[in-house]
Write a structure and sequence with these properties.
cellulase activity; Glycosyltransferase; 363 residues; mainly alpha; globular; 6-hairpin_glycosidase_sf; 43% helix; two-stranded antiparallel sheet; hydrolase; single chain
Length: 363
């Protein structure tokens, strides 16, 4: 049984960032059965039956993910977080749909995202949609990784299916990210997690798992190295320095002060956990394995010793989660260590499923 108090969900941090600065909470969906009713206290959160047309010969794991999590309206439903939707899920879904050639799903997800989460004041997206609320989009703050995923998916979809309007929208999002979400400080160009709540004055709050190098490299190819090169270099620099404890692992959240040295976020448990597992995937997928060599070494040593890889580890005390890494997380390990990808049933939670798909398809 998981101790939810020991887990952290960055989505809740974004929700609080506009009013407070930091909130710790749990990633609720790990290891639970997937049913709409279970995720919303008996109330279905889906907008309608899953009747969307599907192309033939799609990837089987994607087809299963789509059947469980994609509503007919185009909304990816996070069943482990009360049936909400967020730009992370929409972006992941759009990116995977392009990868497997599922244009109907891509269009449905993009159209829903544009209709419900697009901000009127800039080409970014409010991060969260809660169907249980009278105001489903109460927090206008964005989540930078969601915006990056959407921009990348649109650019790839435009190239695959020849729709110029999608590239134009991708370009608008890329420009807005560069303008509003990069802070220049001490000769570095920090990619911020969101517009509001992460510039703490003397420190910046950073989430290394937002460093989606596949997207950043694509942006540089589209917009020029002069635009994105400094951002990429800073992301790489942060990862080289954000190595803590005996295993030199990054934590889910870090703060960077005037000296440019990342430190574990002081108001959060110093864990290499549910967010940081993606740091390895994003680096390896973009041919930057050296940046995450300590993570690979930690996982490799666990396997060599016949030990279970835990869902999280405290980088200082060495305390480990009393439950293992999810099937999706294990697929990330396999991708990172260049091991054969095991064919497994779809994980029983939204985030685990996403990791399974990303480990197979992210390039």
């Amino acid at each position: 049984m998981q101790d939810k108090n020991m887990l952290f969900d960055r989505r809740h941090m974004l929700m609080a960032a506009s009013a407070a600065l930091m909130v710790g909470c749990s990633r609720k969906g790990e290891g639970k059965s997937v049913t709409p009713e279970a995720s919303t206290g008996g109330q279905k959160s889906f907008d309608g039956p899953k009747t969307m047309d599907s192309p033939k010969n799609l990837d089987g794991m994607w087809t299963s993910f789509r059947q469980i999590y994609l509503d007919a309206s185009g909304r990816i439903v996070d069943t482990g977080n009360g049936g909400i939707s967020h730009t992370e899920g929409q972006g992941y879904g759009m990116l995977m749909a392009v990868a497997v050639g599922d244009r109907p799903a891509f269009e449905a997800m993009y159209n829903w995202t544009q209709a419900h989460l697009a901000r009127a004041d800039m080409a970014l997206y409010s991060w969260r949609f809660d169907p249980r609320s009278n105001n489903p989009v109460a927090d206008p703050n964005n989540a930078t990784d969601g915006d990056m995923l959407i921009a990348l998916a649109l650019a790839r979809a435009a190239r695959r299916w020849g729709v110029a309007a999608w590239e134009a929208r991708s370009r608008q999002i890329r420009q807005a990210i560069r303008e509003h979400l990069v802070i220049a400080r001490g000769g570095q160009h920090y990619l911020m997690p969101g517009i509001a709540g992460f510039d703490l004055g003397d420190r910046l709050m950073i989430n290394p798992s937002y460093y989606i190098f596949t997207a950043l490299d694509a942006f540089a190819a589209l917009d020029g190295a002069a635009t994105w090169g400094p951002v990429i270099a800073t992301c790489e620099n942060v990862l080289r320095k954000a190595r803590f404890g005996v295993h030199n692992l990054p934590t889910d959240w870090v703060v960077v002060g005037a000296d440019g040295m990342p430190q574990p976020a002081p108001d959060k448990a110093p864990q290499f956990g549910f967010d940081a597992v993606r740091v390895a995937l994003y680096a390896v997928a973009a041919r930057r394995g050296a940046l995450v060599a300590p993570i690979a070494d930690y996982w490799r040593a666990k396997q060599a010793g016949g030990q279970t890889i835990p869902a999280w580890v405290d980088v200082y005390s060495g305390a480990e989660a009393p439950f293992p890494l999810s099937p999706g997380g294990l697929n990330v390990v396999q991708r990172t260590l260049n091991l054969p990808m095991k064919t497994e049933a779809l994980a029983q939670d939204y985030y685990g499923c996403v990791l399974q798909l990303l480990a197979r398809h992210l390039r």
